[in-house]
Design brief:
The protein is an all-alpha fold. It has eight helices and no strands. The N and C termini lie far apart (56 Å).
Length: 195
């Protein structure tokens, strides 16, 4: 006989899996911070800075004229893709989420540096509300993705694969998704209000 679905129990299992995966989540945070600091304090090679600036200009063009609702959906769908890819992309030894942590950190550091040069250090405080919910969701996703890739080192690989996959999906639906929804509403409203 199948167990009856119990949301509270599923939610508890999600947090248990997050606790089990904490070292991988810490690793994603550490990589992100390390490369954010590199992006902020070290001179950026001109080829890389040009590519980042082109990407940012394209992003601004894409979102120009969007209302709060459109911006919220745009932010949510981008973060959703990034988080889901962060988890599922970890299947190959956790390489994709590791690189994503590194690149995201570097871009945040670079953008922070450009913002400080243009508007002064107080601009960094304006970025805080944008990351309160979004960054934990991204770190959890990337951390779970890195853990997912370790199934190949387990004796019972198929069992480990299934365990990591279903636990990660549970965490994604019950923890990451709500965080991304809240983050998108806050960011969409703040950006539309500031425009």
């Amino acid at each position: 006989m199948k167990e009856k679905f119990n949301l509270r129990r599923e939610y508890e299992k999600s947090w248990e899996f997050i606790k089990e995966s904490k070292n991988f989540i810490y690793l994603s945070i550490l990589v992100f911070i390390a490369f954010a600091l590199l992006g902020f304090f070290l001179p950026t090679p001109s080829g890389i800075s040009e590519k980042i600036l082109v990407f940012l200009v394209e992003l601004l063009e894409l979102t120009k004229g969007m209302g709060a609702g459109e911006l919220t959906w745009f932010i949510f769908s981008n973060n959703l893709k990034s988080s889901l890819l962060g988890i599922l992309g970890g299947i190959v030894l956790g390489i994709f989420p590791f690189i994503s942590s590194l690149l995201n950190g570097y871009v945040v550091g670079f953008v922070g540096k450009v913002g400080v040069m243009e508007a002064g250090p107080l601009i960094l405080w304006r970025l805080v509300p944008h990351g309160i919910f979004e960054l934990p969701a991204i770190f959890i996703s990337f951390g779970l993705g890195m853990k997912f890739g370790t199934f190949v080192f387990k004796k019972k690989r198929l069992e480990a694969f299934r365990d990591y996959f279903w636990n990660s999906i549970r965490v994604f639906v019950l923890v990451v998704l709500p965080l991304l929804i809240i983050a998108a509403i806050i960011e969409g409203s703040l950006i539309a209000f500031a425009a």
